[in-house]
Amino acid sequence: MPPAVHHLLRMFLAAALLLALLATPAEAANPPPADDPTGRSLEPLLAGEFALQAGKLDEAAKAYLDAARAANDAALAERATRIALLAKDDVRARAALDLWRSLAKTRPGADAQSLLAAEATLALRRGDDRAARTHLAALLRAPGDDGWRQALGVIGAGARDPQQAARLLEHLVDRNLIPTRLQAWLAFGGLAQRLDQPVLAERIVSEVVRRFPGEPRVALLRASQLREADKPDEARAVLASVAAQADGNAELRLAIASEYDQLGDLASAAATLARGPQDEQSYALRASLLARAKDNAALAKLYEELGRTAAKPDPQRRLLLGQVAEFLERNEEALAWYRGVPGGPQRWPALLRGANVLHELGRGAEAYKSLTDLQADAAVHEDARRDAYLLEAALREKDKNPAGELDAFARGLAAFPDEPEILYARALSYERRDDIPRAEADLRRILVAEPDSVAALNALGYTLADRTTRYQEALELIDRARTAEPDNAAIIDSHGWVLYRLGRNEEALVELRRAFTLQKDAEIAAHLGEVLWALRRTDEARKYFEEARKLDPESRALKRALAKTGA
């Protein structure tokens, strides 16, 4: 909830409580005076909050609009607009937006860009591309960076489908509306790639090269475009051409290394990070890349380089050396490094990693004793004590000891009652075992203590949608999560999935495409493929199944989708 609305709600509740304490019984029975906006808006505001907590977005939008009208408050009108858009209640969204605009006139400029973004989103929802273009153009002409960023968000997350988003983006390029800022052009170029529009992406890259000659970040966009077009050798050539420019620029080195990583060229990514001055972050990233590449020779060389400077008892360096030794499976050395971390915040992760190493060495009894010692030591940082229970549970699972795993969770919850991280981990454990009632119970315990926990709302909603037939209940939970984070790809994916379960396949497809545009994820791709298969668009479905396989061949969602469809 926006801070302004939180403030209003607290103010109204405080006012109501004060009135209740001061009023005589006769006065308390009478309604508030007609000219009291606070009193008139309190009831619908509370009704709106209760409706939101129940995941009933249509009722919440109506109540918030009533509250905004009663209080003449722009923040409440904005809230009503956003909830109505989420509820796909275009009539009420239009009414709330009109009220928001009229109230915002008393604060010139305060809400101008947010209003334009809402206008554009509503126009897109109505299929009125012409009106949307007008509002987007106004946003792009706004000074500073907020306008174009809002326009980017509207196109990326507010369009009904990728085709509509691509038309709008092409219009912006045709009319030269994107502001002359490198970051803006790079962002819109990235959007074209995510929308799977290679021709449009090529146009944007060409324009960026013309406008910003010699800028290395343009080369990164070009390399990314070539990678998406399955031209890895050409992408590598582009990256190699700008590598020398990154020697004195740590941010650029990281960006180039990230592109190499996405190309699957982990050795080149590590070599890029090795250029120029080094710090703990670059060393750690290099070690991680070399470990993933299984390049033990290069990793051993890096380990020796780090070890030459380890005489000084630097906690960060010794922790890193322990981690590299673990990668190299030099577990005795790793254990010595972890035990040699002298103090500081690195001490606690070193102790936890040490327990993990003991387990890898086959010294399980010592590993579990070190964890129980941590759990019982009141001097240990609270987060480390909690994590000791989580690590113990993970190691018990690895030992195929489900009773021991559950016992670790139970003891953790006895020491940290209703700790959300432990409850969440146990819920996932129950879900893996197909014990959905217990998984649900733990997620609901989180929500009792933290009713607005987006992670728990989304996890419970998705679990009910995926593993039960309680689809309406799942939708209400996911809608609560959407209200808090409307542009979260994981939540949009959950929303699309429950719509599919409800038989609303075309709506589901829109949401899942939006989610995949925001985040290339194997589970989202698998969901897209299954919905497309249900719509008998089998060729396109196979394309997304293949995308999911490339991203994560072990994805449980992919395996279930393939088994169900026979693709």
What does this protein look like?
The structure is a single chain. The protein has a domain at 1-110. It is globular and about 70 Å long. It is 77% helix and 0% strand. Mean pLDDT is 88; it is low at 1-29. The two termini are 43 Å apart. It is mainly α. It has 33 helices and no strands. Helix 13 packs parallel to helix 15 (250-262) and helix 30 (505-518) packs antiparallel against helix 31 (522-534). InterPro entries: TPR-like_helical_dom_sf, TPR_rpt. TPR repeats lie at residues 522-555.
Structure summary:
By secondary structure, the protein is mainly alpha-helical.
What's the SSE blueprint?
Blueprint: H1 3-22, H2 25-29, H3 37-53, H4 57-71, H5 74-86, H6 90-104, H7 112-126, H8 129-141, H9 146-158, H10 162-174, H11 182-194, H12 198-211, H13 216-228, H14 232-242, H15 250-262, H16 266-273, H17 280-292, H18 296-307, H19 315-327, H20 331-339, H21 347-360, H22 364-376, H23 382-398, H24 402-415, H25 420-432, H26 436-449, H27 454-467, H28 471-484, H29 489-501, H30 505-518, H31 522-534, H32 538-551, H33 556-565
Helix pairs in contact: 1-3, 3-4, 4-5, 4-6, 5-6, 5-7, 6-7, 7-8, 7-9, 8-9, 8-10, 9-11, 11-12, 11-13, 12-13, 13-14, 13-15, 15-16, 16-17, 17-18, 17-19, 18-19, 19-20, 19-21, 20-21, 21-22, 21-23, 22-23, 23-24, 24-25, 25-26, 26-27, 27-28, 27-29, 28-29, 29-30, 30-31, 31-32, 31-33
Which percent range describes the beta-strand content? under 5%
Total beta strand runs? 0
Task: Please identify the structural class as seen in this structure.
Answer: mainly alpha
Question: Which residues form runs of ≥5 with pLDDT under 50?
Answer: 1-29
Radius of gyration: 27 Å
| Continuous helix count | 33
Mean pLDDT: 88
Major sheet details? none
Helix content: over 70%
Our measurement of the CA-to-CA distance between the termini, rounded to an integer number of angstroms, reads 43 Å
Overall geometry comes to globular
